Amino acid sequence: MAPHDVPPLDRDCIHLAAHVYSRDLALREGQGIDDIPAVDLGSTKWQVHAIWEMSSGWQVRAVVYRCTESSATADTRGNDDDGALPVVGDMVVALRGTDPSNFFNLLADGCMACGQRPPMAGDVALSTTPEGALDILSRIKGASGQGQESLSSKVVAVTGHSLGASMACIVGAKLKKRVVALDNPGVQRLVDKNEANWLREHCVNYLARPNLINVLMPQ
User: Residue 4, SS3?
Assistant: First the structure.
């Protein structure tokens, strides 16, 4: 369970960052996005809006969640920067973190922790590089939320765990959206100065299990 003393938006992001690993997201033949059970968090309910699977020698997953029910309304909502409870129509992008069974995931994790871009996998850059994060960014900006506007106008936060947290920081800094990072290896050396300054104000890091990487590496 997420801690009760964190802002409502962060609480939801913590749950969604975990749900991105769910077997429910592995669609079987004949199933569609609408067949995936909603994530009911009490004050809010989230439906999967899109799943992006990107392969570059290993699988990278980005899931877009759309808030379909909320006890807050547009009239009563607070400031997204303060982690206010989302309202219907808000979206969160969650990025899956390290798969410990995949060599390239572990290699990328180590490189990111050392502030280095991961090496190439074949002729395609690993999706944890800034270039890979930009691919996710372009999908967010290009995809349509209601047929009239890009998803970026609806996204209130980007979240992820471990390697997914690093990617979330890069994407969030470029989108200028709140970032909720869990066990973040750190990306200070992988973003420009303005983005790094922005993340200091708009990125919240939660450490579930403090370790050498997430405690000592610059966030």
Answer: coil
pTM of the model: 0.80
Interval 67-100: pLDDT, tens: 999 999 888 777 767 889 999 999 999 998 766 5
User: Distance between CA 188 and CA 199 in Å, rounded?
Assistant: 9
Burial of 142 (0-12, 13-18, 19+ CB in 10 A): exposed
Q: Are 8 and 46 in contact (CB under 8 A)?
A: no
CA distance 111 to 210: 19
Count CA atoms within 13 Å of residue 132 on its CB side: 32
Q: Where are the alpha helices (DSSP H) in 61-192?
A: 103-113, 130-142, 163-175
